[in-house]
Structure formats: structure tokens, C-alpha cells
Amino acid sequence: MSKNPDTLEKTRHSLAHLLAAAVLELYPGTKRAIGPAIENGFYYDFEFGKPISDADLPKIEEKMREILPSWGSFEREEVSAPKARELFKNEPYKLDLIDEFENSGEKITTYSSCPTSTSYKLQATSCFVDLCAGGHVEKADEINPHAFTLTKIAGAYWRGSEENPMLTRIYGFAFRTKDDLEKHLKMLEEAEKRDHRKLGKELDLFIFSELVGAGLPLFTPRGTLMRNLLDDYVWSLRKKAGYEQVDIPHLTKKDLYEKSGHWQKFGTELFRITTREGHELAMKPMNCPHHTQIFKRKNHSYREMPQRYTSTTKVYRDEQTGELSGLTRVRAITQDDAHVFCRFAQVKEEIGKIWNIVDEFYAKTAGFSLQVRLSFHDPEKPDAYLGSAEVWKRAEGELRMIVSEKGVSATEALGEAAFYGPKIDFIAHDSLGREWQVATIQLDMNLPERFDLFCINEKGEEERIVMLHAAIMGSIERFMANLIEHYAGAFPFWLSPVQVAVLPVGESHEEYAQEILSKLKDAGIRAEMRAGETLGKRIRAVKIEKIPYFLVLGDKEKEAKQVMVESRDKGQLGAERIEDLLQKLSVQNAEKR
Ligand SMILES: [Zn+2]
Ligand SMILES: [Zn+2]
Q1: How does strand 527-529 pair with strand 500-504?
Q2: With contact defined as beta carbons under 8 Å apart, do 375 and 419 qualify?
Q3: Does the pLDDT at position 321 exceed 90?
Q4: Cβ–Cβ < 8 Å for 305, 341
């Protein structure tokens, strides 16, 4: 629960209490764990005597609606640890929490929801009491009984640790109005249709192999083509901004990460390797430390600054199996990574250049609307970050100024910084209105300190420099997932693995079709001929594959030396000369719109 929950968050958390009350009535003896508000709803973790399934959810939901009208306000009471232990003597998870609160010196509070009338038959005289720090609606009648629903159950370890018992988590959605709830459910339904895992298979873009392992996607020729198109495009934008490509190995000695701080910060997420000679290596979880060593190969004069290095390369993170999901959460992540090594005075100009690339790539090309977030460190948790408070203040001040000079409104999020520096994060809204964190620009004054990076300034002195981390797509896997869902698989022309399908009506038209196919290919258009089955079948297949254009070639077209064009987005375009069509398609390829 955040410090100042809004009404909707309070409603969601109050519903978690209601869910627990309903569960206890239906399944007496169930042990309760915790029940917070989350994005779009709430959950509660329980230990059931007998396992339940999704089929039990309607019954529980009905019980919640039955109890709700009987609840009055949420009454807070501060209790001593012994009293709390007495109250929750049969609830092992609550007892565990009470121990924790007592040890940390936190106040222990309970909240009671008591019946307002005696009409409620089952619990007319008893209140529902939960151990809770607060964050509820004032009165239970503020909760709209038609704007929530239980959605699913899932397993969840107590305190998130595999060493603890597995509990049953019941999830629910809750909104202000029934209308909002229905909109959300509709959006999810649409999202399911667009699920990149489903479309990735249908469009033959990527696969997973049990032999290779979970979280390690394999890209097919079509999927690889798309990745390369995206990466080449980012590189073309970077090249114009003065970046240079560098190449680095996927392994490193432990020493590099001890110096960078990754060894401690990444901890169990690192894939570690011991060589036959007993040396400890790791698969790289990030590229920055490697790039620092390229910069450090020689002393750079201020005249050579900035140095801008980019590598599209994989990083590896040992994500827990339960956290893996399609391309959005994988163990081998391809980053289109870049680092700018520059003087502090050059930060503004360099960030401006990266920002232009982000605008060009996301807003103009992909049609995402972008929001800007300043992700700063949490001053209350200095241990979570590298570097002094002063360094953070300077870096965050600089980013705040750059954003305000740009005239862009940005939200500030404390605790969202990288461990080595604050970030400007770009949040994209896709065609379903969902939020994705996409590009990020990070200002890092800590790694240059740790690796002693400097340039020789005008006075011949060593001057400490700063680093900018500037991935545009971030993870190409996650970005592919976003794109597939954003476009529902109907990619824009420039990004479509197959751009044009050529369909001869019958065998006698295949020679002419071959001629057209060659012309398309010579013009750099990715085209394929589809022959053999009935024309109707082939047209249906082309539509399922979401190919942007198909050309039907029969007697009439052969005679007139034309092609009959149909567009995926605009329908029938009629007959035209292949030369005219090629010109239009080349423009679409170049414009990338
Ligand atoms: Zn509560
Ligand atoms: Zn980096």
C-alpha cells in the first residue's frame, strides 16, 4: 500500500478484506496471509484446508456481495503484540507478521468491519477483524457492488520465498463503475486475441524448445528478419548522431562486476560459471562495464569527447521459472545498448540527441504516444544505490532541468532509478491504451567514478567524465512482444517479413507471375509467389498471414501487362502497371510509416 492511497486504491484494498471475510464464511478454518490493493484490483493469499479452483470463484464473489451491505465502517484499533497474538492465535501467517512488526517497532493495528444491522443472518453479532496497517474506504457502502469481480487463482509462496509454504492467491479486479470494469474486461479480451505468444506462433516469428530451455526464445527466419529491420533502423538513426559500433564477449571475469557493483547488486540473478582452472566468470547481465574498458584503452583528450559506443548484444539473467512469460520476460535478452562517455557540460546536448532518436523511432514510426517519467532514487533507502547523496542530487537536478527546458511534462517517480543513476523513462501507450516502459536514458556519475574514467581537459588535467546509458528498444524481445500486440500482427509495410504475395490465377499465368516476382525482388521488396491450391484458399492464407499486399495475375493482367492489387488495409486497389506499384512501395519502405 502506498503512503497516500487514492479512493480507488482504498476501495481495492477494502475488497481484499471483504474477500477474506467471504472465504472464512465459506471455508471455516482457512488461514489468512495478506491482501493488498494492486493495479486494477486486489488479491488475498490464503492457506485452504482443501484446494479450491477457479470454479469456486463465483460462489465466493456472491458471498462478498451478500456480506457487503451488512458492513459499516472500518474501525481501527491499536493493539499490543500479546493481544494481537491472542486475536490471531490460529493464524500462523498473521503471527509471523506480528513478530515482524514487534521486532521492527512498528505499531500493530487491527481493522474491524462490523454488521450495521441484525438482518444479516450469519454473522449478525460478530465483526470481521483483520491485522492491517490501514488504507480503507471510510464506509463500506462506498464500494460499488457491481464494479468488482474475482478473476483467477494462482499459487504464491509466503513472503515470495520458495522455502515457505505455497499459498493460494485469489485475484480480483475492481473499478469505480460497472462501466469501467466492463471496459477493462473487454480490453483484456482483445489483448488475449493479440497475445504475442499466440500470434508469434501463427505468424511463424519465434518458438521455444524444451531442449533449449525456458526463457530462451529461438527466432525463425521471419522473426530474425524483423529483429534485424528494427535494429538496422535504430543503428541508422544512431549513426547520424555520431555513434560507433563496438563488440564485446558475453562472458567476463568476476573482477569486472565486483568493481562495477553488479556482483553484489545482481546477486542470484547472475549466471555464474567456474572454469576448469577454477576461475569464476559470469554471463554478462549488462554491457556497461565492458564498454567502460573500451573507453579506458587510452587517454582521451577533451577534443575526442564524447565517445559514443553501441552494441546490439545479448545479456543473461537467471529469472525464476515462474516469472518467465513469452518474450516479455526471458533469460537471454538482446539489448540495442549504447553508452555515451562525455563531459558533464555535454550531457544536455547528448541527451537531446538520444531523445530525438526516441521520438523518431517510437512516436513517428511506430505510432506510440509517449509519456516521460523521471525515475529518481529513494532518499530513504541509500543502501540500494551506489554513490553519495551529493552526486545523486546533481544528476537528478540536471535531468529535471533538461526535461523542463524541453517543455515536456513529466512525472517524478521516487525509487525507480537504476542503482547507479537516475533515468528519463519513456512510457508508450499502445493501441489498446496499455502502458509499456520502452526507451530509457540514464545519467550515471557512479560507474565513471568506480572505473576511474576521465578525459584530459583544456588545462591538461584529468577531468572526471559521466556516462549515459541509452538503449532505444531496450530488450528487443520485449519490444517485439509489444509491437506484435500493438499491431495485432498486422505490421506496417516496412516491417512485414513478407510484403507482397504474388498469386497467379492458374498454371498458365505462372510464367508472368515469375516475371513480376523478379521485378519486385530486384526493387528490394520482400515478395513470395503462392501457387498450387485454389485461388480462394491462397487468398485466405495470405490474409491470415496479414501480408500487406497481394497481386492477382490472370489473363487480363497478363494481356495488359498489369497487376491486380489488393491491400490488407485498404481493400481492392484495382489494376496498375508494376512500375507504378514499385514506386509507391519503395516510398513506403523508405518512409517507415
Ligand atoms: Zn486493511
Ligand atoms: Zn548501461
Answers
A1: parallel
A2: no
A3: no
A4: yes
| Region label for 525, one of left (φ > 0), alpha (ψ between -120 and 50) or beta (otherwise) | beta
3-state SS, residue 400 = helix
Give CA–CA dist 524/541, Å, rounded: 23
Distance 339 CA to ligand 2 centre (A): 6
- 105 Cα to the center of ligand 1, angstroms: 19
**How close is the Cα of 137 to the center of ligand 1, in Å?**
10
How far does the centroid of ligand 1 lie from the alpha carbon of residue 31, in Å? 16
**Which neighbouring-strand residues pair with 437?**
427
C-beta separation of 338 from 309 below 8 A: yes
Q: Read off the amino acid at residue 63.
A: K
Report residue 119 as a C-alpha cell: 438482518
| Interatomic CA distance for residues 72 and 124, integer angstroms | 12
Pairing of strands 423-429, 410-414: unpaired
What are the residue numbers of the active site? Answer: 288, 317, 335, 337, 339, 423, 469
Ligand nearest to the CA of 128: 1
Q: Which residues of 368-396 are buried (b: 16+ CB within 10 A; e: fewer)?
A: bebbbbbbbbeeeeeeebbbeeebbeebb
Do residues 504 and 553 make contact, with C-beta atoms less than 8 angstroms apart? yes
| CB 411, CB 374: distance < 8 Å | yes
- 571: how many CB neighbours lie within 10 A of its CB? 7
Query: What pLDDT does residue 84 have?
Result: 94
Q: Each residue of 271-291: pLDDT tens digit? A: 999 999 999 999 999 999 999
Sign of CA pseudo-dihedral 259, 265, 270, 275: positive
Ligand positioned closest to the Cα atom of 423: 2
CB distance 35 to 133 below 8 Å: no
0.85 surpassed by pTM: no
Spacing, Cα 135 to ligand 1 middle (Å) = 6
Q: Which ligand is nearest to the CA of 12?
A: 1
User: In the prediction, which pLDDT does 120 show?
Assistant: 46
